[in-house]
Design a protein that fits this description.
26% strand, Alkaline Phosphatase, subunit A, alpha+beta, 29 strands, 12 helices, Jelly Rolls
């Protein structure tokens, strides 16, 4: 037999007998991300104040990554999970008003899995941009149900969106989102699925169904051992957060039970982690810092990964890891070759999860609000040069930079190099990026009050912009303005979501964009109160919301290009024109 024949025989043998990971053989993926839940908000981690048996079981049935890191706040963590890259590389510089968007040319985890034949869906809080090409449907997700802002003002049957179209939720939001995830999984009928479930709690407003609140409203709370977490504790806020965590636990249980009943559990990877440290001073394992902090307590998150086919129960991963690692790790398990347009910062930890205890040298970085930090396997260095041995000093109380100068210098050099490569301060052009309008792939474009600026008497309903509306619209000189980039011209139907007292009905409003102008008169009242206070378990700092009503403004023909979109009143019939929540554009040509 000649060499060519031997080669053909080898290839034939390989094709016939080698395991080939087709789309139908690949594992399903469910990624659960919670909002403002800290490392310490689980009974598994020693918190005596609550019980989270289903999440604890998930950890014991799979792997626990003992030192897993995210960012100090929401949108950067989500961007890093979705792309496998540090948020400081890709234009994320705030949590609202456009600064939460990562660059449109990034490849997302949903792009990767959809490209490999997966059905992809996201249900919950997106917080990485509202308009195409930043919307979830433009980022690789076939189905999206939830909200795109960083904060939502009401958790009981609120206004939400489904693939860009405004809808009303059904019941308590976390329960509703979980139900949609289960329904999506059910509908796949054997097709592999990638489900991203970014739940919105225990982020404020501190709302939770009564059966959970009743367990905590008068509960004695054991404080965190860290001295800084024992000062100025807001007990009712803590109780509400813990009640919300128990609701999360029940919903995790719903997902796990459905996977078991459907005989999908063995071939489904379930990931659970949080987006930053806790949103209050409560039990957090004695670590220093909470949400917004670059200290250990602000950036350490639980991370549990269960995959019965490949990960043994009670696996403990000692190697430090981060949200940037989840994309390459999950792709590795699915046998998907990554072809990202840009190099990843994350690495696959599949070997660690399958029992490889080798711990190579590695640094993990984080930055927020002018502060930065680097974590090695043993130490954390803060931006001010303070060095801490984390295993023995999770509270970061003992600066050892002088006692360990070589380690301090090594980490300082690494941090300085990373800061130069990933400066985090975006170019002025990125800060002033307009909001896209009329993307050709989007039927609907929302322009909320959150993304607008106001002039004259008009003011925002709250200083935290995410779920706000515009009010005090009392004259014809004041305006509500959006800097927009009309991506593709055409004709659009425009609606305004508003509230208006009966005595104020009759004002005429005018919307101008470039050379296009439309006018409409407010002919119907929408007399609705502020809502949310009755359901709050702790007084909020964010604003309250209303039940908004849409009114047709007419059809508007837009030309492509960057321009100012401005909403004004032509006349004022009463004391106030209206309260304005958002504009909705629907392409009709």
């Amino acid at each position: 037999m000649n060499q060519f024949s031997k080669l053909l025989l080898f290839v034939a043998f390989f094709v016939l007998f080698s395991p080939i990971l087709t789309a139908n053989d690949r594992p399903n993926i469910v990624v659960i991300l919670t909002d403002d839940q800290g490392w310490g908000d689980l009974s598994l981690h020693g918190n005596p104040n609550l019980s989270t048996p289903r999440i604890d079981d998930l950890a014991r049935q799979g792997a626990q990554i003992e030192h897993f890191y995210v960012c100090p706040v929401c949108s950067p963590t989500r961007a890093e999970f979705l792309t496998g890259r540090y948020h400081t590389r890709m234009g994320v510089f705030s949590t609202s008003a456009g600064g939460e968007r990562f660059d449109a040319d990034e490849t997302t985890i949903a792009d990767v899995f959809r490209g490999a034949g997966y059905a992809t869906a996201a249900f919950g809080k997106w917080h990485n941009g509202m308009q195409h090409p930043y919307h979830p449907n433009a980022r690789g997700f076939d189905d999206f149900y939830g909200f795109c802002s960083g904060h939502w003002g009401h958790y009981f049957s609120p206004m939400l969106e489904h693939n860009g179209r405004i809808v009303q939720g059904d019941g308590f939001l976390v329960d509703d989102l979980t139900g949609h995830a289960i329904e999506f999984i059910h509908d796949q009928k054997g097709k592999p699925f990638f489900v991203y479930l970014p739940l919105n709690t225990p982020h404020s407003p501190m709302q939770v169904p009564g059966k959970y609140w009743d367990r905590f409203k008068e509960k004695e709370i054991v404080p965190d051992p860290a001295p800084e977490n024992q000062k100025d504790v807001q007990l009712q806020h803590t109780r509400a957060a813990l009640a919300m965590c128990e609701n999360i636990d029940d919903n995790v249980g719903r997902i796990l039970d459905y996977l078991e009943r459907s005989k999908l559990a063995d071939n489904t990877i379930v990931v659970y982690f949080c987006d930053n440290g806790p949103n209050g001073k409560r039990f957090n394992g004695g670590m220093r810092g909470r949400k917004g902090s670059t200290h250990e307590g602000g950036v350490r998150s639980p991370c549990f990964i269960r995959y019965p086919k490949s990960i043994k129960p009670a696996t403990k991963v000692k190697r430090i890891s981060a949200a940037i690692d989840l994309l390459p790790t999950l792709a590795d398990f699915a046998g998907i070759e990554l072809q990202s347009r840009k190099p990843l910062d994350g690495v696959s930890i599949k070997g660690d999860l399958e029992g490889d205890n080798t711990i190579p040298d590695r640094f993990l970085f984080s930055a927020w609000n002018g502060k930065s930090t680097v974590r090695s396997q043993t130490h954390r260095l803060q931006h001010n040069g303070a060095l801490f041995e984390i295993e023995s000093d999770p509270g970061e109380q003992n600066d050892v930079s002088k006692e360990q100068p070589l380690i301090a210098e090594k980490l300082r050099t690494a941090l300085a190099t990373w800061q130069k490569e990933c400066p985090g301060k975006p170019a002025k052009s990125a800060v002033l990026r307009p909001f896209p309008l009329g993307h050709p792939d989007a039927q609907w474009t929302q322009l909320p009050a959150r993304d607008a600026t106001a002039s004259g008497t008009i003011t925002r309903s709250n200083r935290y912009p995410n779920c706000t509306f515009m009010k005090n619209w009392t004259d014809t000189e004041s305006s509500i303005n959006w800097e927009v980039d009309v991506v593709a011209g055409g004709t659009f139907e425009v609606q305004m979501y508003y509230s208006c007292d009966a005595d104020d009905v009759g004002s005429t409003v005018q919307l101008v964009c470039g050379e296009s102008l439309i006018r409409a008169t407010i002919s119907e009242p929408n007399e609705v109160p502020l809502i949310g206070a009755a359901e709050d378990r702790f007084d909020r700092v964010e604003g309250y919301v209303r039940r908004w009503k849409p009114m047709d403004l007419g059809k508007m023909k837009l030309s492509p290009g960057r321009q100012l979109l401005s909403l004004k009143a032509v006349d004022v019939a009463g004391e106030e024109v209206a309260n304005m929540r958002l504009l909705m554009f629907r392409r009709v040509e």
